[in-house]
Amino acid sequence: MKIDVVTIGDAMITFDPSHHGPMRYASTFERKAGGAEFNFAIGCARLGLQTAWISRLGNDEFGKYIRNFARGEGIDVSGVQLLNHYSTSINFKEIREDGSGKTFYYRHHSPTEALTETTLDELTLRNCKLLHITGVFAAINPDKNIPLLKRAATIAKDNGAMITCDPNIRLKLWSSEEAKRGLTELLPYVDVLLTGEDEAELLFDVHDPSQIAQACQKYDISTIAIKKGENGASAIRNGELVHSSAIPPKKVVDTVGAGDGFDAGFAYGLLNGWTLERTLKFSNAIGSLVVSVYGDNEGLPELGEVLTKLGERDFIER
């Protein structure tokens, strides 16, 4: 039986401050785990999808913690190795009162440098229904990771998998010029693009959804979803443009991970053959749930929680 979802990428220890405001005034932090692909994998697993994650971590206490965390979420970590002579990547977060914030990365000499085209878990890639890639992993080491992602996408696609991509541009990891050049190399391998408005504008120099879809035609990208935060999301497939309004959260406390949760929801809709309208509404509901909880992935919901948020399942408190 095929694995539903596979993703490739780094994971980090995330240090969350004990109070809001500039990080230079934070004196205590809570250790958590995060990373774009890691969060996506957790989001998929919590929705009930069979999920595998391919990565490398340091053979240290942080690496063991992350691998155990993923395994505890039901993620297949057979493609994750702990390596000597590498330290697991870390980052520190700054969170403001409105839930916005900054991330400070310490991921130079990432353990994923040891993940190469020749060490890819090809068996897992041949046996998946959907491969999810992001610009974060590409940005860590573009010269090596972009060819690696091309190879992974080719293997998966040749065996019938769908390829989804979130540009997830982090300008602290590479410049806008490098991001545009590197991600444009990956687009011919992509079936479904899951992008933010600002990322689409950087990649294609256009902002309107119809223009974005037109720009994607040269890459044969069949579906484009455009995340707009508090303004909801739009999607285009075969000329059909659909918009779904955001679902207001009770309170926004931390926006990190909302895009990864949206991606997991969209993958769930794709694998279940849902309409664009249904998929967008479901994905927006996940984003709303994520931003109401502190942490990169603590707010990623199980399927029942999403259905309750959508009013499709009763909430029973006691």
From TrEMBL:
Taxonomic lineage of the native organism: Bacteria, Bacillati, Bacillota, Bacilli, Bacillales
GO biological process, any: fructose metabolic process
GO function terms (MF aspect): fructokinase activity
UniProt-listed Pfam families: PfkB
Keyword Transcription set for record: no
Keyword match Transferase: yes
Domain Carbohydrate kinase PfkB: 4-302
Homology family: Belongs to the carbohydrate kinase PfkB family.
Top-level lineage group: Bacteria
Record keywords: Kinase, Transferase
Protein known as: 2-keto-3-deoxygluconate kinase
